[in-house]
What we know:
Layout: H1 6-17, E1 22-23, E2 25-29, E3 39-43, E4 47-50, E5 56-62, H2 66-74, E6 76-82, H3 85-90, H4 98-107, E7 122-130, E8 136-138, E9 141-153, E10 168-171, E11 174-177
Antiparallel strand pairs: 1-10, 2-3, 2-6, 4-5, 5-9, 6-7, 7-9, 8-9, 10-11
Amino acid sequence: MYEADAESVTENVRSLMRQIPHPLTVIVAQDLASGSPPTGLLVSSFNTVTLHPTPYVSFNLKLPSTTYDAIKASRTFTASAVADVQLAKDFLLDKKADRYVETMRSNVCDRRDGMLKPGRGAIWWVRCRWAEQMSQPVGDHVIVVAEVLGASYYTGLDGQDESSEKALLYAKGKYRIAGPSIAEK
């Protein structure tokens, strides 16, 4: 009853997990030593591992990954919560496409820390240091674990923080925004 071929198990898990809303987060890293431009991607697996005594976060990446290579080289990255569908789509571009470099240039600050430009559709940022010893390869992915160095809300073009924005979610193959809370009985 519980045993099935690997392909059907994979498809069943994929189908089941698509029912669960996942927050979308942009991860940007830059290997400054090599002089490479910043590289980034969109993940739906970013989460808090622990807050005490030191905050740690994690997310999953499919290998090979130029963003993971940049994280390993620089040992740091910035995660940004996404509130805008266009920003999410920008970071889904094929990195071999000509538009990818321009997308990075138009969305990422010139400060070389992975921060996104104001008004680009991000809510908050978390600056992280890669925890190499805690990160773990699993199949064709890696679970990236990182210590949080700093975190705050982005400031919008109007000078106000973006704390009132709602994070973009992905479920059932579509972008979504969380609705009102449900009263408990």
